[in-house]
Amino acid sequence: MFGVLFPGRSFPMDASSFAQIDSTHWVLDMNLFVGEAYDQVKEMCLFLLNEYSLPPEKALAVYVQSPGSAFQYCGAVQRACPSAVLPLLWPSPGSGQMQIMAPDAAPLTAKIGLSVEDVISLPSLNVGQQQRVEALALKVGENLFNFMQSFCTVDANRLVVPMDILDRWFKKFQDKTKRDPDYLRNFIM
Fold first, then answer.
1. DSSP for 155-187?
2. Where is the Hikeshi-like N-terminal domain positioned along the sequence (predicted)?
3. Most buried one in 60, 79, 143, 171, CB count within 10 A?
4. What mean pLDDT do residues 138-165 have?
5. Contact (Cβ atoms closer than 8 angstroms) between residue 5 and residue 13
6. Torsion angle of alpha carbons 89, 92, 96, 97, nearest 10°?
7. Looking at 8-99, which runs of residues are DSSP E strands?
8. H/E stretch holding 128
9. CA quadruple 16, 20, 24, 30: dihedral sign
10. More confident residue, 17 or 182
11. What is the average pLDDT across 78-101?
């Protein structure tokens, strides 16, 4: 029905690499796949093996689960979009987010879950990309705040910064991104 590839980490794998829970759910125990370094697996390529793998109204959804957390949705493929490289944004261990797949006890290992679901019941198929953009925006904001803090003074419980601080920060930020093409990518890794 489907194939999976972890770029730079695996050869293509089919559904037999996953433990099949029932006719619509599969789980990959990341401890067996990569050990405790599950959070170093940043993305996965998921693809349908043929156009008849799923009915048109169904999708194959991907979820990730860190030890002690609930499954978190990462994205999906469907007949209209039969393959995708999905970012795996692992929840914090023990975060106990809303349980999406099954209300079992908290896992001791990280897992990737696949589930056949109705397309209309799923969030946007680009949820992983949106989460990456949000994480990047947060890191850029933190970088700006830290830069501003190094130049500020306190005046009656207010931070006072030089008027050209944004220009200075942005120039420094641009210089770093020109020198190191991976600079922005490192913000979300």
1. SSS-EE--TTHHHHHHHHHHHHHHH-TTHHHHH
2. 17-119
3. 60
4. 81
5. yes
6. -30
7. 13-14, 19-22, 25-29, 43-48, 58-65, 72-78, 83-87
8. helix 127-149
9. negative
10. 17
11. 76
Task: Report residue 6 CA to chain centroid gap.
Answer: 13
Residue type at position 108: L
pLDDT for 146: 84
Dihedral sign (CA 100, 105, 110, 112)? negative
Instruction: Name the 3-class secondary structure at 40.
Output: helix
- Which amino acid makes up residue 189? M
What the block records as the tokens of 154 is: 């306190």
Is 73 in contact with 122 (CB distance < 8 Å)? yes
Alpha-carbon torsion, ordered 8, 12, 18, 24, to 10 deg: 120
Query: By the 8 A CB rule, do 115 and 63 touch?
Result: yes
Pairing label, strands 25-29, 83-87:
unpaired
Distance CA 44, CA 36 (A): 17
The structure tokens listed for 34 are 């990569």
3 state SS of 101: coil
Check: CB of residue 21 under 8 Å from CB of residue 30. Answer: no
Q: Is the pTM of this model over 0.70?
A: no
